[in-house]
Write a structure and sequence with these properties.
There is one protein chain. The protein has 293 residues and is of the alpha/beta class. The protein has a single domain, classed as 3-Layer(aba) Sandwich (Rossmann fold), CATH 3.40.50.1820. The protein is 40% helix and 17% strand. It has 12 helices and 8 strands. An 8-stranded mixed β-sheet has the order 1-2-4-3-5-6-7-8, with helices on both faces. It is globular, with a radius of gyration of 18 Å. The two termini are 20 Å apart.
Length: 293
């Protein structure tokens, strides 16, 4: 393996917030910014960094409150997706990135869309992996969340399912999967996530971001307009057994984007845990094609 293909694990100070990130590849290649979701971190990208370094400078940060990045308490940091995007903008400045492809997964999707819509010219292409941007993907499993976002009372909060616990963390990986896929998931993933989430105050952070996800949902019309107006090239990778985002979501992207390639896998919400090789090959081909490599 080339030395530059090996993952480098580093941290950088961004306005007093320590951002941990994994990186592979060289700065002369197009940047691919990998944004993780809840409850994970850049750890979920560990198997795709080396193959993607063939065609890109791969950068996978841990968002504030996740993984090995700082997790300031509520009151010391504004936990909204807009502010996470602010931090990511300054992070990109610190490491010398101007243009980039962006990988959108779960909570990473609202962060990435804030970046894309602020300066569309910076975004070379979208890689969407089980990241929601349309009502199509939010089935009846989101009814309780919608009620809470519309009226955030204690009564409506009490109706929400319990997910900010160890069982809920494991469920992010395993819920909805047939047994043939459940046995492919390594348990250290959710154990690491739960260990990081168990930091003092971090469960409050995660609930605050869940509350702000309602603001992301309210922007779906704006996201569709961004797609229609700017037409970023898009690669969509989807685990069809996702218990959280319905498969119908993929057609929302197809409605508005002219240049879109879609792959649906026999997988769940955390596609890369079971289909890292297939996903890396598709992403590398997409990046090479769009960038003319």
């Amino acid at each position: 393996m080339r030395a530059t293909a090996k993952a480098r694990h580093q941290s950088v100070d961004v306005d007093g917030i320590e951002i941990f990130y994994r990186e592979a590849g060289t700065p002369d290649l197009p940047c691919l910014l990998l944004l993780h979701g809840f409850p994970s971190s850049s750890h979920c990208f560990r198997r795709v960094l080396a193959p993607l370094s063939e065609v890109s400078r791969v950068v996978a940060p841990d968002l504030p409150g996740f993984g090995f990045s700082s997790a300031p308490k509520i009151g010391d940091y504004e936990y909204t997706f807009a502010n996470l995007a602010d931090t990511m903008e300054r992070f990109l400045e610190r490491i010398g990135v101007e243009e980039f492809f962006v990988y959108l997964h779960d909570f990473g999707a609202p962060v990435g869309y804030h970046l894309a819509m602020r300066r569309p010219e910076r975004v070379l292409g979208l890689v969407v992996q089980n990241g929601n941007a349309h009502d199509d993907g939010l089935g009846e499993q989101w009814d309780g969340a919608r009620d809470y976002w519309a009226d955030p009372t204690e009564e409506n909060r009490a109706r929400l399912p319990e997910w900010l616990n160890f069982e809920g963390t494991r469920g992010q990986y395993l819920d909805g999967l047939p047994e043939r896929l459940r046995i492919l998931h390594p348990p250290e993933t959710w154990h690491l996530d739960w260990e990081r989430m168990s930091r003092p105050g971090d469960l409050d952070v995660q609930f605050q971001l869940f509350r702000d996800y309602g603001a992301h949902v309210a922007r779906f019309g704006d996201l569709a307009e961004y797609h229609r107006t700017h037409q970023p090239p898009c690669l969509l990778l989807w685990g069809r057994h996702d218990a959280f985002f319905d498969l119908a979501e993929i057609m929302g992207y197809a409605r508005d984007l002219d240049r879109i390639e879609m792959h649906v896998y026999d997988a769940g919400h955390y596609l890369l845990e079971t289909h890292a090789d297939e996903s890396a090959a598709a992403i590398a081909a997409f990046v090479a094609d769009v960038s003319g490599a």
